[in-house]
Amino acid sequence: MQTNFSAAQLADPHVAESEKILRKCVHCGFCTATCPTYVTLGNELDSPRGRIYLIKDMLENGRPADKEIVTHIDRCLSCLACMTTCPSGVNYMHLVDHARAHIEQTYRRPLLDRLTRAMLAFVLPYPGRFRAALKLAGLGRPLIGLLEKLPTLKPVAAMLKLAPSSIPPASPIASPAVHGGQGTKRGRVAILTGCAQSVLDPAINEAAVSLLTRLGVEVVVPEGEGCCGALVHHMGREDQALASARQNVDAWMRAIDQGGLDAIIITASGCGTTIKDYGFMLRLDPAYAEKAARVSALAKDITEYLAPLDLPEPVRKPGTIVAYHSACSMQHGQKITRQPKELLAKAGFIVREPREGHLCCGSAGTYNILQPDISAKLRNRKVKNIEATGAEIVATGNIGCITQIASAAKLPVVHTIKLLDWAYGGPKPEGVSEKSLVAPE
Ligand code: SF4
Ligand code: SF4
Q1: What is the Å distance from ligand 2's center to 327 Cα?
Q2: 74, 130, 225, 427: which sits with the fewest CB atoms below 10 Å from its CB?
Q3: Cβ(212) – ligand 2 distance below 6 Å
Q4: Quick check: CB of 76 below 6 Å from ligand 1?
């Protein structure tokens, strides 16, 4: 694509980066076919190519964002299916991240939208605040029907609908500690405790730490870790996202200095995609660029780390049929497609893949709150495809997808690591029926 930026505009490194990306796009439109919002809405401006034109026009003319561009960029899930499909290697992720930051700096949203976003950014990344908010959500639940009728309050209704009626007690697994590996030491890793996941389902990291330590891997939960910054990054709140990134880089660098790390393990693929991008996000910060690149190189999804390990024979052979839902951040963001399925099959599960596996479930960070109508359409389509597999359990590697799919599916939705931990001697994941299990051989 031909671009017309001035030398003065290109002096801004963010603009220069976006210009490089724009020049790679050849307008072929292959990406439109796999874009969930184009597939759902059928509007070119809600396709990757349409959004690329809108962003180009906004940046090239150096103008503030307007209502039209905000509407179409807000509808983008950042699912990155377009990056998997694009034959020209267009880095849509970095382009849309730049556009979102530009929108945040130049566009004044309507009051309720501003308040909703400010509240999400204040609550979600902090486990204590999120836990308190979930407890309060019970009081608002009777109002869901009323709130849904008022278009501007739909996000509040969506939030209340997604809030689980009960939350597990806080788990010590989120506290700083060193969990020693059993037997011969096979490695030393840090694990991200994160934010929302540690409140909604701490058993995910409990399963990861339990399995890793049984395999002889020492697991460090470093002091000072926090939210990876993805939730606010996708809202264009760059300063808050970069502050989170720096805080985590500092925490992991201390862990590296205190005994080395073979990997930084992440059990939520949405976080994994962002942490693997820390090197890019902090490239212009001389104090952090090198350290952030080092951290990104160490970041690994739990299945990516487990795949090359020599795992023992499973202690149970469940024979349960599992539908594997590959989160967008897993398959498109991190290009991890093979490992989770292979690990599940090796552990004795019969793995089935739903149709249209490339399409997002509509979770996408805060998307299911901010764009509840499109999100619900995508969720229902996803659940229909999952249920058509005839599976007894859904496995996936991202807490956002678990919450989203579980809000409509009739079958249990479980993190992949919980199934693996169970197959190798850990506890049966909560919500999985004993009935569906085949007795050990
Ligand atoms: S990130 Fe997803 S929703 Fe956004 S343009 Fe690409 S394919 Fe479409
Ligand atoms: S597939 Fe790639 S090159 Fe083709 S229109 Fe989409 S982003 Fe541009």
Answers
A1: 22
A2: 427
A3: no
A4: yes
Task: Tell me the C-alpha to C-alpha distance, in Å, between residue 115 and each of 14, 22, 44, 108, 156.
Answer: 28, 33, 30, 12, 11
From 1, 25, 95, the mutation candidate for ligand 2 (largest count of ligand atoms within 8 A of CB) is 25
Three-class SS state of 307: coil
* Closest-CA residue to 231 (of 105, 78, 336): 78
Q: Considering every ligand atom, which ligand is closest to the CA of 40?
A: 1
Q: Which residues, in sequence order, are bridge partners of residue 112? A: none
Cβ–ligand 2 distance for 33 under 6 Å, the answer: no
Give the amino acid at 286.
Answer: P
Question: How far is it, in rounded angstroms, from Cα 90 to Cα 39?
Answer: 20
pTM to 2 decimals?
Answer: 0.94
Cα dihedral 235/299/313/325 (nearest 10): 20
Pick from 31, 82, 356 the residue to mutate for probing ligand 1's pocket: most ligand atoms within 8 Å of its CB. Answer: 82
Ligand 2 atom at shortest distance from the alpha carbon of 26: 3
